[in-house]
Amino acid sequence: MKPTEFVKVNTQFWGDHLKSVSEHLPTSHGGELPGQLLYPRMMVLTETPDWNILELVGVSREYRNLDVRRQKANSVEEYFGIADGTPVLTLPGENFVKDATVATETGRRELDSRFPAARKILGAEYVGPGDQLLQFAPGNYSTFDRVLLVHTAGPSIRVHWTFFALAIHRSEPAGKYLDFLRNFASAAPHLDPVGTLSAPRGDEGLKSEAFTSTYLTHGLPNATVESFLAEHESLLLTAFDATRLIQRPLLEWRDGDATDEVGLTPDFILERADGSHIVGDLGLPLREPGKKHRRATTIPEGTAQLARYDDYFSTPENQAFAQTKYGVTAPRKLLVTSTQQLVTAAELAQSPVEIVDYDTILRLYLAAKAES
Known about the structure:
The chain is of the alpha/beta class. 31% of the residues lie in helices and 28% in strands. Strands 2, 3, 4, 6, 7, 9, 10, 12, 15, 16, 17 and 18 form a twelve-stranded mixed beta sheet that branches. Helix 1 packs parallel to helix 4 and helix 6 (225-239) crosses helix 10. The longest helix is centred in the N-terminal third of the chain and has 26 residues, at 3-28.
């Protein structure tokens, strides 16, 4: 199947399917649904030399026509950030992974301490040693329906919740693929259609303008770090089990080293309920204060900046200043990215930080708000 055919089939199928769901279920079966239905906002279609990849991303309170983004990757391995080694999950033939977690052993352990809300969305667990999560084989259809993927490489960890993703070898014809999609959707439970998610009813957070995906250009052109954090404070606090958010703290140099800088200014610091801290930067297309352009942070750029915070907290003088002014000690390092941003295995291995995309934060928020 040529990439142009892949685009055409997906645009038609998902548009018709999700529109039909939105027009039918909330009205005729509203009382039977377990919660408010949420929909994806964008369809990312990725072409590699041997594979076509679909991912539905974004989290929206109502169905809208899906924005379509096309991109290229060098391989299916690059797209899914697959490293070398023994895979957690091997994918021969047709594969359906739904409401599940695929994680390295290290990643699964870290979820409990770093992301406590994840315990509510673990579902079926596929856990194995090493750094590699997935291994694909030619001729298969591999679908990931509401699946949490947790990659690790040394001290680095990437947590990515997939609304819906599908990888198909390019040797498969368009007609067969369309039949697959139709059969897959028709086999799903009527009250839990493919490409949707049930959220708690009456959650005030869902009514906030912040509850939208950050890669949508109409939602971010005028957003600065400050305005973004002000709008998203409750989401960040809830998702990371935090009690306090410090916006743009100034970490002044107090170690006596000569420098042209007064200090470092991370985008935010979170104080968690257990007393630990997270220093974070937003690798999102936000506007710099007083400027028209928006920042465009790559994974290497974002993690290089976060590495400077390690340097800062490595000296007693700086530690004492941060403790006295902000009550902060030895924070974890977090980079928040756009959902469709690729994170390759090589980039993860070179980035000793936590990489979490914005839609995964939204999913952790919803999980934390859900009833036990």
